[in-house]
Amino acid sequence: MKRKGSGVKPIEIGDITQVPYSKEQWKILQAKRGLAIDIMNKLAANNIQTLIYGSICRGDVTEKSDIDLFIPFQISSFKLELTLEQNKLNIYEKRIVQATPKHLVKAHIYLSELICITFPLTSIREREFDFIRFGGALTLEELLENRRVPGVDKRLMLIEPTETGHKESPIMGLESIVAKKVGVNVGLVKERVRVLTTRDKVGRTGVYLNIELSPDENIEEIFKQIVDKNPIVRRRTKI
């Protein structure tokens, strides 16, 4: 399956804008959150705790918004896939992905084009948690409390939930303030601004690793083959 790009351009200047939600948007948000809660509950029943991140946490969803779940620890893919099978959650696609040689190597298990469960294949550093928090993240308990949190979208707009919807504002030039609001290191905010604005100017450059697996391939076995052949990935496994 061809992975979809965002097709969204960063916004560099602008005022704070109030965005009220229609009844339909609230309905979409609740439906997507309900589906996420169902999956997260089924995983939690098997001691697999997850975070949800992105627009569902902020509230600025559309029908095409992804449901992105992250397992914040290394886990056997066999255990995860068995749990999915036992709960009649079919696997749509499997991938091994690494954004750059310095970043976390991750496995993606897609349940559909819009539902993805990600888990680490290498050790997680605090910077990688910051990356998730940058866009907004919630635990299952926080999702059940119907919480929403601020986060930055792909346009580099800070989305801050309000009672009627959200307010949004560009983050360029306000990186330190944004870092405090979303709870991440200011260095990461500056990095995301640099990466996304550069990508907009020179075009999407892709990721370092993006390997699709067949349904019967074992994620750890394929990852070991990659590590054996690729010294750059091998070095990342030792961090």
What features would you describe in this structure?
It is globular and about 50 Å long. It has a seven-stranded mixed beta sheet. The protein has a domain at 22-149 and 206-237: 2-Layer Sandwich (Beta Polymerase, domain 2), CATH 3.30.460. The protein is of the alpha+beta class. A hairpin with a 4-residue loop joins strand 8 (151-152) and strand 9 (157-161). The protein contains nine helices and eleven strands. Helix 6 packs across helix 7 and helix 8 (219-229) packs across helix 9.
The number of helices is 9
Largest sheet: 7 strands, mixed
CATH architecture title of the domain at 22-149 and 206-237: 2-Layer Sandwich
Indicate the CATH class of the domain at 22-149 and 206-237: Alpha Beta
| Low-confidence regions | none
Q: Residue share in helices?
A: 25-40%
SS-derived structural category = alpha+beta
Shape: globular
What would the CATH topology of the domain at 22-149 and 206-237 be?
Beta Polymerase, domain 2
Describe what is shown at a glance.
The chain is an alpha+beta fold and 239 residues long. It is built from nine helices and eleven strands. The chain has a seven-stranded mixed sheet. Strands 1-10-9-8 form a four-stranded antiparallel sheet.
